[in-house]
Amino acid sequence: MLLLSAATALVLTAFQDNLVFFYSPSDLQTKPLAADQRFRLGGMVEDGSVVRDGQTIRFTVTDYAATTPVVFSGILPDLFREGQGVVTEGRLNSEGVFQATEVLAKHDENYMPPEVSDALERTGKMPNTMRMPESTSNTGS
Predict the structure, then answer these.
(1) Nearest CA among 109, 70, 105, 59 for reference residue 86
(2) How confident is the model over 12-64, as pLDDT tens digits?
(3) Do 119 and 24 meet the contact criterion of CB atoms below 8 Å apart?
(4) How far apart are CA 84 and CA 18, in angstroms?
């Protein structure tokens, strides 16, 4: 019994260490985060916010209700640009800047990560060009 409890505790600890939550900029204003907690931040890359300095890129992620500044050092995906959906992974520093270790951009004009689209829908700011077309059914009657 003790061995089973220890094994369960190990599995749960490993699972918790690898669990990464998603937040929108609005969520960051209302939900307390543990210091140095790794999470995903998603939204739209704010127009006019991208500043490049060598390998370091600074930009702002917005859900149109709130914004979060992001800094990333590395190579961005080819499809990364202002006004497009993005999901970043990293940690919030003590100054409120999100230190991204990974940046994911949407892969075509008809796709947006579900976390990003949910956050934009909640704020009522989902761009019409990003909405999924409503399905129509033909009942044949």
Answers:
(1) 105
(2) 454 455 567 889 998 888 888 877 899 999 989 999 999 999 999 999 999 88
(3) yes
(4) 27
pTM: 0.70
Residue 78 exposed, middle or buried by CB count within 10 Å (0-12, 13-18, 19+) = exposed
Higher pLDDT, 39 or 135: 39
Q: How far apart (Å, rounded) are the C-alpha atoms in residues 72 and 65? A: 23
Measured between alpha carbons, how far is residue 125 from residues 10, 12, 56, 66, 129 in Å? Answer: 42, 37, 29, 11, 11
126: which 2 tokens? 């989902």
Q: CB-side exposure of 129: number of CA atoms within 13 Å?
A: 5
Domain assignments of the chain as residue spans, ordered by start: 19-126
Q: Which CATH architecture has domain 19-126?
A: Beta Barrel (2.40)
| Dist. CA 57–CA 99, nearest whole Å | 11
